[in-house]
Amino acid sequence: MAESRLATRGRTTVPAQVRKALGAKPGTRLVWHVMPDGKVLYEQNRSRFWNWRELWNLRSKG
Question: CATH number, domain at 23?
Fold first, then answer.
């Protein structure tokens, strides 16, 4: 089990073993789901729409 501490302003660090298991790198977006029983599930957002939008913005500027 991995754990992290909630800092001021609601920030936390995703533990290294979790990042490795997800293949998460800086900029990876995580989606959080709070279940009715209080458990929290999260998943890596696999949508690439925002990457395409960033690439389009770079292309139109250059």
Answer: 2.10.260
How many separate domains does the chain show?
Answer: 1
In a domain, 31, yes or no: yes
Hey, what amino acid is at 18?
Answer: V
Helix, strand or coil, per DSSP, at residue 14: coil
Side chain identity at residue 23, one-letter code = G
What would the pLDDT profile of 3-40 be if each residue is shown by its tens digit?
Answer: 999 999 999 898 999 888 888 888 888 888 888 888 88
6: Cβ contacts below 8 Å, ≥ 6 apart: 12
State the pTM of this model: 0.57
- DSSP label at residue 34: E
DSSP state of 9: G
